[in-house]
Amino acid sequence: MAEETATINRTTKEKHVETKREPPRNSIAEWTVTILLLLFGTTTLVQAFVIPTGSMEDTLLIGDHLLVDKLAYAPVGPFSQYILPYENPKHGDIIVFRYPADISQTFVKRVIGVPGDHIKMIDRIVYRNGVRLNEPYVYHKFPYDPARDNFPGEPSPFAEGLQAELQRDMLEHHVVNGEAVVPPNSYFAMGDNRDNSLDSRYWGFVPRDNIIGKPLLIYWSYRASTEDLAGASVHSWVDHVVDLGEHFFTRTRWDRTFRVIRGFPDSKLPDHPVALNAGSPNP
Question: Is 109 an active-site residue?
Fold first, then answer.
């Protein structure tokens, strides 16, 4: 797989300028697509998805039930490109995708790097193409860990199987001058809960073909445990059903119902460093 080796330099004034812009979908378009999918959607257009882990806290919480727009990143056809709002994943987009190390699992992360980007992380701060990213959506809930909060680095000791192979391939073949270079048709994705996220730092890049879509809205949010939501056993499933019957009204997060989910484009990133955001200990 070919990779870009030339160093990309951008000044602070240039960091919000894109050489090729995708036409944005404004609020009216977002709600139009959402309503159409709710009324007429099938599994080919929209997919229900529940957040089982805290890797995207506090942007997305454990127990958030999402509707995922499967049209957003669909392949562009000769005629459909003029009818449907297809686009490529962009910096700051939240994406739902099949986990490269086990495609039976579905992950949700934020796009940090697109093809050709140079990515590194120093003392918790992400740099893309030499420019510091001041990310207001990032949360740090654990103490600083140099092995976790600097990238690229040594392979993760807990990685095994295909995950370890993918990480090793990235570190051996896609690192130039201390930066990971995103290959063609691939993306670098990270969780907003940076201290507790199994993301591209640990298993490499997201292939374009693995991307399912982008979250549209939270249609229901219920405070529950990862074990209950995952339904790993009959016992946990029964516990979850009983819990719903007893606490549906008190544990439903009503303020998150029908909340539209949007990405965070480069144009909205602040020009100054942001304070460490610890988020909520039990959101």
Answer: yes
Q: What is the pLDDT along the chain (283 residues), one digit of tens a residue?
A: 433 333 334 433 333 333 333 334 444 445 555 555 554 544 567 888 999 999 999 999 999 999 999 888 876 555 555 566 668 899 999 999 999 999 999 999 999 999 999 999 999 999 999 999 999 999 999 999 999 999 999 999 888 999 999 999 999 999 999 999 999 999 999 999 999 999 999 999 999 999 999 999 999 999 987 777 765 566 666 776 777 778 789 999 999 999 999 999 999 999 999 998 998 887 8
Whole-Å CA distances, 223 to 74, 216, 283:
32, 20, 8
What are 186's two structure tokens?
């691939």
Q: Would the pTM of this model clear 0.85, i.e. be above it?
A: no
Domains and CATH numbers, the chain: 12-268 (2.10.109.10)
55 counts as catalytic:
yes
Q: Are 128 and 117 in contact (CB under 8 A)?
A: yes
**Residue of 15, 70, 109, 214 marked catalytic:** 109
Q: Tell me the C-alpha distance between 219 and 228, whole Å.
A: 19
- As a whole number of angstroms, the distance between CA 62 and CA 59 comes to 10
Listed residue (151, 140, 139, 133) closest to 265, CA to CA: 133
- One of 13, 15, 20, 55 is an active-site residue; which one? 55
- Residue (of 18, 33, 57, 37) closest to 256 by Cα position: 57
